[in-house]
Amino acid sequence: MKKLVSLILVLLMAMSLVSVSAVAEDGSHKLTVWCWDPAFNIYAMKEAAKLYKEIDPAFELDVIETPWNDLQTKLTTAGMAGDYSTLPDIFLCQDNAFQKNVLAFPDMFNDLTASGVDFSQFGAAKTAYSVVDGKNYGVPFDNGAVIQCVRTDILEQAGYTVADLTDIDWDRYIAIGEDVLAKTGKPMLSSTAGEPDMIMMMLQSAGASLFDAQGKPAIAGNEALKKAMDVYTTMVKKGILVEVTGWDGYIGTLVNSTVAGTINGCWILASIQTAKDQSGKWAVTNMPKLPGVEGATNYSNNGGSSWAVSSNCKNTALAYDFMSKIWGGSVAFYEDILPSSGALATYLPAGKSTVYSQPQEFFGGDTVFTKITEYAGKIPSNYTGAYYYEARNAVAVAMTTILGGGDVDAALAEAQSTVEFAQGV
Amino acid sequence: MKRRLVSILTYTFLTVTAVFSVFPLLWMAISATNTSQVVLSGSLVPGTHLYDNYLALLQNQPVWRAMGNSFTYSIGQTLLAMVICSLAGYGFEVFHTRNKDRLMSLLLMAMMVPLAATMVPLFQMMGKMGLLNTAIGFVLPSVSTPFLIMMFRQSARSFPHDIIEAARIDGLNELQIFFRMFFPTMRATYAAALTIVFMNAWNNYLWPKVIMQTNDSMTMPMLTANLMSGYVVDYGMLMLAVLLSTLPTVIIFFLLQKSFTEGIAGAIKG
Prior knowledge:
Largest sheet of chain A: 5 strands, mixed
CATH topology of chain B: MetI-like fold
CATH class of chain B: Mainly Alpha
Structural class of chain A: alpha/beta
Number of strands of chain B: 0
Order of helices and strands of chain A: HEHEHEHHEEEEHHEHHEHEHEEHHHHHH
Strand content of chain B: under 5%
Number of domains of chain A: 2
Number of helices of chain B: 15
Structural class of chain B: mainly alpha
Oligomer: heterodimer
Strand order of the largest sheet of chain A: 2-1-3-12-6
CATH architecture of the largest domain in chain A: 3-Layer(aba) Sandwich
Strand content of chain A: 5-15%
Helix content of chain A: 40-55%
CATH superfamily of chain B: MetI-like
CATH class of the largest domain in chain A: Alpha Beta
């Protein structure tokens, strides 16, 4: 018995020792960052730290790898508990969730409007994601500009080139898709069943949102949304778009040559390039626009994230200086991270760099990065607000209902009331 | 004839369910030996990339530190939970007070509350106690669970009270009776409890993720989640990490399999 009691005591003491060593020291030149993806965000952050060290040799950066879902859980828990002491100095936030978090926990964020970061140097639509009541709360980072990637070899079999798919509308796209399917047996696109990404991309391409300017849901009777739903269901019914289960299934259709292309945020380039045997067979162009919808364009956004400085930051002067001099002021930094990570900036001066205009062998020698930076400047802004994810989910349910043969207006009205219920309207 | 038919149907059913249960594990093991692209193509042929995946994993994530942390936290949590819950379960059965059954019902009700609902108040509590980002804060909410207390209480019912009386007459105090008489007789229950607690502790994800703030405190489930968070997921490397993460619980389960079934059966029979 004594042995057991001593074992427990030793264990407790050992654990308290572990805890002591786990507490980070707080130096005046040190910043702590939460973000995810070692090949992308974490890599970029560490490169930024290397460059900033040239300005401030005592600078130290501690990156704590935190997947986005966990980061959101940690923000929510800290926010609801009112205890911000665990937050890092800087954290990365998905653009779609940025306004939601600022509106829910305004004390958690530092207002960056007067921080020295020149926000006019970033794409307007991108910056808009982290603006609440005219104040900037985020420094834009990676680009989510939508691109259409196509397999030129498959298109060629059906007698088309990438030029036939450039600057077109969805009606033309469906016509080409039917032809490609008939001649090659391959669908044009794939999408994860139950995920409304494609609908959201179409919606934003026409500058439309799921909410009006007052933040009220604008789902029922939304003409752009109805048109997007119509295009999507038509493509599924005609077999031009094949729905698959889960993200892995979606990536599988790209790398296994199941489909002739994809439409997604430009970060999809990294996944496409994992199929090394397909080098030279891919091309990049813009997405089709919604036909007959006012304000429709061939440009949209999907995904992307921005950096926030938390209210727990002990040294805001250092954080602001780091953000403005590197993330919002160094073309060299964006040139540095592009080749290894494929992290495309929304910092507009970087788009003019010669590194961005290098031809990419995988995409038939095209200057895809310059192209994407150009697209990024043409994306219409949309409003996400505090209930974006609720609205997205409601639209996803409506999409499934419509695909199952349900009435479009009734399904959208149902989605509208679901969001209104969530908002407590 | 009828018996034979029943037996054929039983075995067919068992074979089908066994295939469904074993297939994901088999797929995981095969995928750990393939490249990401081969995994995505749905191949079921073992590949030659196991070592490459291992090297990539070592380069990307602190896998051995995470393994060490997982072991430290899980063993600590398991030992504490076993001592605390078995003492509580034994106490509930052997000692008699007026309100003990009401207290037990209250405990059982607590079993219905999911962690997500108690996370914010727990976080606040730990914050006020200065236990955020500490190993004690990590294990404390799990060292006493209503399920384990109930399991030990049920087992204690089969422990003859005459032995307790005899031991008291022989001059043993209550703690001595517990450790010298109850503890050795209830090995099967302890083995079952050990398997359950260790597995839960090893797979614990949400709470550690919320309370632990440094890379040094990363555990295996956190490491696996990190591997899935990127724009590009290396499925071969991911499956190897999942395989490594599964092995300890599988080994413990197989080692204690016999006692586990006995212990669970004992607890249910009462």
